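Hi W., the zinc ion complex you wanted:
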Amino acid sequence: MFRKIFNPLLALAYPQSCHVCENSVENMSDGVACQSCWEKTEVFSDAETLCSKCGAFLQAQPINFQTFCHRCDEHFYDSASAVGVYGHALAASVLHLKREPFIAQRLRKIFVSRFHNSDFRDATLIIPVPLSKKRFLERGFNQAAVLSKLLAKQSGIKLDEQTLVRKIHTPMHRVGMDGKARAISVNNAFEITRPKLIEGEKVLLVDDVHTSGATVSNCAKILKENGADKVYVLTLAKTL
Ligand SMILES: [Zn+2]
Ligand SMILES: [Zn+2]
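Structure:
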């Protein structure tokens, strides 16, 4: 408890060590990773080729036509975008956000600008990917809701944290779990409490990390079944 309250002050007094390489973090705005680890992080700049649907990284050189990875063909969302590739500073930031509901300035900046440079600006409703009640009680906050609040504030788009809920508690995705196993573990895990609030809306789903896409696809499926016009997905990171 005390650690949480005094953490920002402690960070000022004692430079934090980088969660990736353990060198010291000289700039507070860099959060949990040092400048050099941020420089190694693949943050998308629109110069690279990404899957036009799920946003997966395909190659560093641009191609001037739509390209698809085809692993996301069955997914129910319209399109997804991430700040960058899950690794280095972005991975450390995602892991940290599961422990502390705080987003460092550098991360805030690149997350909000990813939205402003996206095709999602016509979204009418921001919805965080929900946690199960059990996990919410364990963690004390939903990291996707922390990101959603930031985006709602910056964009003026309405935020809805109540309508989409996770009714089944699924075990944490494990490394090595294949796409099929992930898909089964999140199947039918979500429900809509007030369908009227979803009808005709262009929903921007927000989460910390986009892995196989099974979770966001299942959220999108139920949102569309309840009348959502569009479902976009924005995350901090996309795994390769
Ligand atoms: Zn570092
Ligand atoms: Zn794809």
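Residues 143-155 form the longest helix (13 residues).

W.
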